[in-house]
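For reference, the entry.
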Amino acid sequence: MIVRNNIPGINATRNKGISEGKMKKSLEKLSSGYRINRAGDDAAGLAISELMRNQIKGLDQAMRNCNDGISFTNTGDGALAEVHSMLSRMKTLAVQSANGTYNSVARANLDKEREKLMEELDRIGETSHFAGIQLFGHDDAPKGPPLPEIVANDDVVFQVGPSAQETLVMERYYIGKENLGLGNVKLDTLDNANKSVPAIEAAIEAVSDVRATFGAASNRLQHAYNNLYVTDENMNAAESQIRDTDMADEFTEFTKDNIIYQSANAMAAQANSTVELVLNLLQ
């Protein structure tokens, strides 16, 4: 027996410290829910996880962008639906005015309604906004016949992905009586009424083309959103596999280390009591 160095006690205490350290790490993982709480836990896994997290955040924002884009296109289509309704009414008035049973006074009254519809058409084109962004008309809008002259130069760009290259570009259109080729439309005479019918029909077709653009963009944004949703779900699952704690496995490790810790603690006490036997020899 020796008394200057309690080797068994030192060994038991060392093992006790190792088990205690493992228990602390297990408790940290169990309480946080993360397998990786610092770079030292898994340096490579942390790097990959952080890259995935950045991509997931980009995907989440892109999904919100798609929803905003869908709302944008729906707002534009809603305004154009009313333009379509007014153009249909104008065509009805033009056909009505072209009837030989109406006199000049009746046609003048029909033309007054046409004039008010034109004013409302211009107002919609100039004041339709989405979150402060003008949907249609601008002060520099060109004057002329329908498509393609009513196409604006400032396209709407939707960011639909986490990278700069993932965009959706939608053409913007000018909407107004001049842009739709209705500047000279009048219903005050039989001849003017007859000439107005094909012009109004062309405007209806032009607005239909514009609405088709909004509809196509809306459908594409919806599909882009669905794709982003699936990608986001899979990316979250992959990131979880790398970073999250397997609770059942980690609790098993904690239980094992706890048993070893208690055993080492008991052995340390036993090693210290063994030294006391030397004192009994000296008595």
Notes: The mean pLDDT is 86.
